[in-house]
Design goal:
This protein has 171 residues and is an alpha/beta fold. Helices cover 37% and strands 11% of the residues.
């Protein structure tokens, strides 16, 4: 029987324990980590900020979110997940009802994909997401103002979306 209480260090024993960001995890590292997270029932917060994975890594993380129901906070900011990786992550949220925080800053996410995927969050009432950090993506101020007027002010579900350091929408 596999041990459900394995830690990150069990899979990466040579990894410096004081290293918090810029871990240079690429697809192979994300693949190994995602396999561990599929069986892990103890990790609630995972910080993968500033690594080197892309759309394929985001796809693996999306697969994890469909299975792992214990993760509550996930920061995958400052990677290269782009629009299709963002879409994979949000699509997986349909099956994950526990994730409360999703960090996505610096990932080249644009207006159109943000709006499309935000609709999924709005339509799925069982999603427990409370906060998204989307700072420094390719979401334009003009789009945000229109989005705020047309959609955000009419929402009933409360999600804090931080798009700039100075502008935070709470629906």
């Amino acid at each position: 029987m596999k041990n459900p209480n394995l830690s990150f260090m069990d899979f990466f024993p040579n990894f410096p324990s004081n290293k918090r960001t810029c871990n240079k995890l690429r697809y192979n590292g994300i693949e190994t980590l995602s396999n561990a997270l599929k069986i892990n029932k103890t990790i609630k917060k995972l910080n993968l900020f500033h690594n080197l994975f892309d759309v394929n890594g985001a796809r693996r993380i999306g697969e994890v979110l469909k299975i792992n129901k214990h993760l509550e906070e996930l920061d995958i900011g400052y990677n290269r997940i782009k629009n299709s990786g963002f879409k994979n992550i949000i699509e997986s949220m349909k099956e994950n009802k526990n994730l409360k925080f999703l960090g996505l800053k610096y990932n080249f996410i644009n207006d159109k994909i943000f709006e499309d995927q935000f609709n999924i969050l709005e339509e799925n009432k069982g999603i427990s997401l409370e906060e998204m950090d989307l700072k420094n993506n390719s979401i334009t101020p003009g789009f945000l103002m229109k989005f705020w007027e047309d959609k955000f002010t009419k929402m009933t579900k409360k999600i804090k979306v931080d798009l700039f350091d100075v502008l935070t929408f709470i629906s």
